[in-house]
Amino acid sequence: MGSNRSALQSAVCRDRRSASYFRHTVIVLFLAAFAMVLAACSSRGTTASTTPPTSVKSSATSGGGGTVSPGVTASSVTVGQVDDLSSPQPSPFISARDGTKAYFAYINSLGGVNGRKLVLDSQDSTFQGGVVANETGAEIHNDFALVGGFSILDSAEQPLIDIAHMPDIALPLDVGMAKDPNVYSSLPNSVIDTPLSFFKYLKSKYPQAVQKVGIIWENATPATVDIEHAYESGMKSVGIKIVYDHGAGIFDTNFLPDIIDMRAAGVKMFIGLELPDNFVATLDQQMQQQHFTPMNVEGEAYSNQLLKLAGSAANGMYIYQDYALYLGEDAKIDPAIKLFVKWMREVDPHATFAVESVFGWTSAELFADALKQAGNPPTRAALIAALNKVTLFNSGGLIPLSDPAQNIPTNCFVLAQVQNGKIKRVSPTPATGFDCPAGGYLPAPGYKPMVRPTT
After folding, report:
1. Which of 170, 269, 341, 441 has its CA at a distance of 20 to 30 angstroms from the CA of residue 364?
2. Residue 298 to residue 282: CA distance in whole angstroms
């Protein structure tokens, strides 16, 4: 992280008021500098995977001049992506980039989309809002769309994509981005509506345990705080009682104080919210050492590193998620999983399979599907019109059926358990697909239906 360490510590540890001030500062500075960014973007110093090509001439337009949208040539379409790659930890979201690259490699092996190969212009946010905004501005100027990016500082993109009406096909983390009409998510974000079906299942199946629940969640930015608040509100709304609640910092490595306090509070069920695999592995090992054995439910820890890191401490853990078992457990029952695994390994034999790779892959697929309908040559306006018509999407079964155009999240889930070092589907999840009970949603305060841009 080098010289960014002090800035990173400040970004992570500041309170909500400071974070709001930071966001306001970013918006003011970059709205003022937007024209300068666009004019100077060709001279930026980056680690882009490719140099965005010069647009071809056409009678089709996307705002004037008789030129197609940026990033389009006769043989390729280049899209941009900004990820947290080097900070706050080494390569935290590189799997999002790998997932996007993997789908592009697959679709390019079939000849691309309408005769054009898909090219990814990937940039590192270095976990700085200013860098996110700067790189986003450059990609708006050079690239056709934003696809598959994953940054917990994604709010810095918002004023720029709104000014440019830039289509951003990705899973947003910031609440404002989740509500933004220029953002299209392959798996609409539960920051806006919290699905209640899984929480209702826990309440009915384990009525005693849900009266004594402990939660630990990742307290990294205002976005992760908002996500935690939404899930906590959802749990409380169905009668789950939280007796221990702690937001872990991104550099926390010791959960022994949490375990001691949870034991003292009589915790019978533990739910990890948004905790990455390394956090969960450490937590489980310390629980094992302390002979603390509540029912253990994890959300975001499922990855190809989890069992390697946690060892026997992971046995018995439940894993709740709204995507299929993409590490390969579901490959025999779902061709989409087999395809995903094959091309992830094709792009990188040592690729990290984590939830962000699924977001990258499915975002790339949603983009490619819309691009097919966006004309030849394609324009941004036509891409937006095509995205606005995608009301059913499930990436071949990799994720549940959802509605990207109207931004309606799924109420479906998969429940799995670690049994003797293997991750297996367990009840109420069916042998194939997802459990999709009638559960409803808890709307976030101020929720309004999505109104998309018109062309």
Report:
1. 441
2. 13
